[in-house]
Specification:
With about 210 residues, the chain is of the alpha/beta class. It has helices spanning about 5-10, 15-50, 60, 95-110, 130-145, 155-160, 190-195; strands at about 65-70, 75, 85-90, 115-120, 150, 170-175, 180-185. The radius of gyration is 26 Å and the shape is globular. GO terms for molecular function: oxidoreductase activity.
Length: about 210
Protein backbone atom coordinates (compact mmCIF):
# COMPACT_ATOMS: atom_id res chain seq x y z
CA UNK A 1 0.00 0.00 0.00
CA UNK A 2 1.48 3.39 -0.98
CA UNK A 3 1.82 6.21 1.57
CA UNK A 4 -1.15 8.18 0.21
CA UNK A 5 -3.45 5.17 0.41
CA UNK A 6 -2.22 4.41 3.92
CA UNK A 7 -2.89 8.00 4.98
CA UNK A 8 -6.43 7.90 3.62
CA UNK A 9 -7.14 4.52 5.23
CA UNK A 10 -6.15 5.96 8.59
CA UNK A 11 -8.52 8.92 8.18
CA UNK A 12 -5.76 11.36 7.30
CA UNK A 13 -4.90 13.06 4.04
CA UNK A 14 -1.34 13.76 3.04
CA UNK A 15 -0.61 17.47 2.44
CA UNK A 16 -0.91 17.43 -1.41
CA UNK A 17 -4.29 15.66 -1.36
CA UNK A 18 -5.51 17.77 1.58
CA UNK A 19 -4.75 21.02 -0.23
CA UNK A 20 -6.44 19.80 -3.41
CA UNK A 21 -9.59 18.86 -1.54
CA UNK A 22 -9.53 22.20 0.30
CA UNK A 23 -9.28 24.10 -2.99
CA UNK A 24 -12.18 22.15 -4.50
CA UNK A 25 -14.28 22.76 -1.39
CA UNK A 26 -13.49 26.49 -1.46
CA UNK A 27 -14.44 26.78 -5.14
CA UNK A 28 -17.72 24.96 -4.53
CA UNK A 29 -18.57 27.25 -1.62
CA UNK A 30 -17.85 30.34 -3.75
CA UNK A 31 -20.07 29.04 -6.55
CA UNK A 32 -22.88 28.36 -4.10
CA UNK A 33 -22.54 31.82 -2.55
CA UNK A 34 -22.56 33.57 -5.94
CA UNK A 35 -25.59 31.58 -7.05
CA UNK A 36 -27.45 32.44 -3.86
CA UNK A 37 -26.59 36.13 -4.16
CA UNK A 38 -27.71 36.22 -7.80
CA UNK A 39 -31.00 34.55 -6.96
CA UNK A 40 -31.58 36.93 -4.06
CA UNK A 41 -30.82 39.94 -6.24
CA UNK A 42 -33.25 38.77 -8.93
CA UNK A 43 -35.96 38.15 -6.37
CA UNK A 44 -35.46 41.55 -4.70
CA UNK A 45 -35.29 43.54 -7.94
CA UNK A 46 -38.99 44.45 -8.20
CA UNK A 47 -38.98 45.81 -4.65
CA UNK A 48 -35.59 47.54 -4.74
CA UNK A 49 -35.90 49.85 -7.70
CA UNK A 50 -37.08 50.47 -11.24
CA UNK A 51 -34.41 50.70 -13.90
CA UNK A 52 -34.36 53.34 -16.63
CA UNK A 53 -36.65 52.03 -19.36
CA UNK A 54 -38.96 50.39 -16.85
CA UNK A 55 -42.55 51.37 -16.29
CA UNK A 56 -43.91 53.10 -13.22
CA UNK A 57 -46.11 50.40 -11.62
CA UNK A 58 -49.87 50.82 -11.67
CA UNK A 59 -49.86 50.43 -7.89
CA UNK A 60 -47.91 53.69 -7.64
CA UNK A 61 -49.70 55.47 -10.48
CA UNK A 62 -53.08 54.86 -8.85
CA UNK A 63 -52.04 55.19 -5.21
CA UNK A 64 -53.81 57.94 -3.29
CA UNK A 65 -51.02 60.29 -2.28
CA UNK A 66 -51.57 63.00 0.31
CA UNK A 67 -50.64 66.56 -0.52
CA UNK A 68 -48.83 68.70 2.06
CA UNK A 69 -49.14 72.43 2.49
CA UNK A 70 -52.02 74.43 1.03
CA UNK A 71 -53.75 71.31 -0.27
CA UNK A 72 -53.16 69.28 2.89
CA UNK A 73 -55.35 66.22 3.02
CA UNK A 74 -56.16 66.35 -0.69
CA UNK A 75 -55.72 63.06 -2.52
CA UNK A 76 -53.37 63.14 -5.49
CA UNK A 77 -52.67 60.43 -8.07
CA UNK A 78 -49.81 60.28 -10.55
CA UNK A 79 -52.27 58.70 -12.97
CA UNK A 80 -53.89 62.13 -13.14
CA UNK A 81 -51.18 63.27 -15.53
CA UNK A 82 -52.97 61.16 -18.20
CA UNK A 83 -50.24 60.83 -20.78
CA UNK A 84 -48.36 63.96 -19.74
CA UNK A 85 -44.63 63.50 -19.01
CA UNK A 86 -43.68 64.30 -15.44
CA UNK A 87 -40.71 64.53 -13.09
CA UNK A 88 -40.46 63.06 -9.61
CA UNK A 89 -38.25 65.48 -7.68
CA UNK A 90 -36.88 63.61 -4.65
CA UNK A 91 -35.84 65.96 -1.86
CA UNK A 92 -35.34 66.09 1.92
CA UNK A 93 -35.72 68.80 4.55
CA UNK A 94 -32.06 68.41 5.58
CA UNK A 95 -30.74 68.62 1.99
CA UNK A 96 -29.57 72.17 1.34
CA UNK A 97 -29.13 71.59 -2.40
CA UNK A 98 -32.67 70.24 -2.60
CA UNK A 99 -34.20 73.27 -0.89
CA UNK A 100 -32.15 75.63 -3.02
CA UNK A 101 -33.44 73.93 -6.19
CA UNK A 102 -37.14 74.02 -5.29
CA UNK A 103 -37.88 77.57 -6.56
CA UNK A 104 -36.26 76.65 -9.86
CA UNK A 105 -38.50 73.59 -10.14
CA UNK A 106 -41.46 75.89 -9.56
CA UNK A 107 -40.39 78.26 -12.33
CA UNK A 108 -39.98 75.34 -14.74
CA UNK A 109 -43.45 74.06 -13.91
CA UNK A 110 -45.01 77.48 -14.41
CA UNK A 111 -43.27 77.84 -17.76
CA UNK A 112 -44.21 74.36 -18.98
CA UNK A 113 -47.25 73.45 -16.89
CA UNK A 114 -49.44 72.62 -19.87
CA UNK A 115 -46.96 70.04 -21.12
CA UNK A 116 -45.12 68.93 -17.99
CA UNK A 117 -45.82 67.76 -14.46
CA UNK A 118 -43.48 67.99 -11.47
CA UNK A 119 -44.08 66.42 -8.08
CA UNK A 120 -41.96 66.83 -4.95
CA UNK A 121 -41.37 63.48 -3.27
CA UNK A 122 -39.76 62.91 0.12
CA UNK A 123 -38.74 59.34 0.97
CA UNK A 124 -35.93 60.18 3.39
CA UNK A 125 -35.78 58.06 6.53
CA UNK A 126 -34.79 61.20 8.44
CA UNK A 127 -38.08 62.87 7.50
CA UNK A 128 -40.39 60.09 8.69
CA UNK A 129 -41.96 62.34 11.33
CA UNK A 130 -45.08 63.34 9.38
CA UNK A 131 -46.01 66.30 11.59
CA UNK A 132 -42.50 67.72 11.53
CA UNK A 133 -42.32 67.37 7.74
CA UNK A 134 -45.71 69.05 7.35
CA UNK A 135 -44.54 71.99 9.49
CA UNK A 136 -41.40 72.30 7.38
CA UNK A 137 -43.46 72.43 4.18
CA UNK A 138 -45.86 74.98 5.68
CA UNK A 139 -42.95 77.23 6.64
CA UNK A 140 -41.38 76.88 3.18
CA UNK A 141 -44.65 77.79 1.45
CA UNK A 142 -45.10 80.85 3.68
CA UNK A 143 -41.64 82.00 2.64
CA UNK A 144 -42.39 81.29 -1.04
CA UNK A 145 -45.89 82.60 -1.81
CA UNK A 146 -47.31 81.35 -5.09
CA UNK A 147 -45.23 78.17 -5.06
CA UNK A 148 -47.12 75.71 -7.27
CA UNK A 149 -45.26 72.39 -7.24
CA UNK A 150 -47.15 69.89 -5.06
CA UNK A 151 -45.40 68.43 -2.02
CA UNK A 152 -46.40 64.80 -1.50
CA UNK A 153 -46.45 63.21 1.94
CA UNK A 154 -44.24 60.17 2.41
CA UNK A 155 -45.61 56.93 0.99
CA UNK A 156 -43.98 53.52 1.32
CA UNK A 157 -44.35 52.81 -2.42
CA UNK A 158 -41.76 55.47 -3.26
CA UNK A 159 -39.23 53.81 -0.96
CA UNK A 160 -40.12 50.42 -2.42
CA UNK A 161 -39.74 51.33 -6.07
CA UNK A 162 -37.00 53.98 -5.94
CA UNK A 163 -33.78 53.32 -4.08
CA UNK A 164 -32.32 56.80 -3.76
CA UNK A 165 -28.61 57.04 -2.99
CA UNK A 166 -28.12 60.81 -3.27
CA UNK A 167 -30.22 63.95 -3.27
CA UNK A 168 -31.63 65.78 -5.03
CA UNK A 169 -32.70 63.10 -7.48
CA UNK A 170 -34.90 63.54 -10.54
CA UNK A 171 -36.83 60.68 -12.10
CA UNK A 172 -38.01 61.65 -15.60
CA UNK A 173 -41.14 59.74 -16.62
CA UNK A 174 -42.32 59.92 -20.23
CA UNK A 175 -45.88 60.25 -21.45
CA UNK A 176 -45.83 56.48 -22.01
CA UNK A 177 -45.21 55.87 -18.31
CA UNK A 178 -41.65 54.67 -18.86
CA UNK A 179 -38.69 56.08 -16.95
CA UNK A 180 -36.52 57.95 -19.44
CA UNK A 181 -33.72 59.05 -17.13
CA UNK A 182 -32.62 59.39 -13.52
CA UNK A 183 -30.41 62.40 -12.85
CA UNK A 184 -28.86 64.27 -9.97
CA UNK A 185 -28.05 67.78 -8.79
CA UNK A 186 -27.77 70.44 -11.47
CA UNK A 187 -29.72 68.57 -14.15
CA UNK A 188 -33.17 70.08 -13.65
CA UNK A 189 -32.90 73.05 -16.00
CA UNK A 190 -34.55 74.59 -19.07
CA UNK A 191 -32.42 72.77 -21.63
CA UNK A 192 -33.10 69.34 -20.15
CA UNK A 193 -36.81 70.07 -19.89
CA UNK A 194 -36.82 71.10 -23.55
CA UNK A 195 -34.99 67.91 -24.52
CA UNK A 196 -37.27 65.81 -22.34
CA UNK A 197 -40.45 67.19 -23.87
CA UNK A 198 -39.00 66.69 -27.34
CA UNK A 199 -38.09 63.08 -26.58
CA UNK A 200 -34.37 63.79 -26.79
CA UNK A 201 -31.33 62.77 -24.76
CA UNK A 202 -30.83 64.63 -21.49
CA UNK A 203 -27.61 66.30 -20.46
CA UNK A 204 -26.64 63.92 -17.69
CA UNK A 205 -25.14 64.70 -14.33
CA UNK A 206 -24.66 62.26 -11.47
CA UNK A 207 -27.20 59.47 -11.29
CA UNK A 208 -29.49 59.58 -8.30
CA UNK A 209 -30.46 55.94 -8.00
Amino acid sequence: MNPSTMAISKGKLCPPIYHSVLKIFTVLMLIMALTANRAAAQEARPASGIAVGGAVPDSLLHAELNVLGAGAGTAFKLAGFKGKPFILDFWASWCGSCIKSLPHADSLLKANGQALGIVLVNSSARDRDAEKLARFVDTFLKDHPGFSVPFIAQHELFSRYFKISRLPCYVWVGSDGLIKAVTGYGTLHEENVRRFLAGGQLLMGKEGI
